[in-house]
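Following the same procedure, backbone shapes were mapped to integers, as reproduced here:
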Amino acid sequence: MKNTFAIAIILAVVAACQSNTADEQQSSQAAEHQHHSEVQQESKPEATEQKKPLSPHTSAMAMVGDAHIHIDYSSPRVRNRVIFGGLVAMDEVWVSGAHKATWLETNKALRIAGKTLPAGKYALFTIPGQEQWTVIFNKRWDQHGKDEYIEGEDVFRFKVQPEILEQPQEELTYEVNKKSETEGTISLAWEKKKISFHFEVVQ
């Protein structure tokens, strides 16, 4: 009888130990799962931030009468750098943006600086200078950087005088502004410089 009672006690003790061990394992697994979830949640914003482009792709466009003018470009930021005369060399051809060359498309011919730009799609290059900038429309709109630029493929060039901005412009920004049903302006602003030029829709 005593032996039977002793065996019953031993079995009860063993069962209790197994139950405690199972509870501890479940608690440990739950804690590990919670920690893993927290790590994933904390890492998501950082991963998203790392993927954010430094020069986001964007565009500017407007309807001027029957003309639809569309400018497609990448918009780099200043990020505490010297831009003109630093990152962007003076008196050299520039893609007027980042990565691929900026391009302009128009469904109507435009009169710019006394010259006619036929309806079509063109690369828009510039040559920044201290006193004057050169604006270039090039036949081959799909170019990467200025490495593929060929002067012989220019449609035409013209000069503009840059403005000094009172407030620095962090991101490179193009604008197409309608002035009337047949006229408008195109502008580029970045850091402390801005250029703009007038156009007229050829009827």
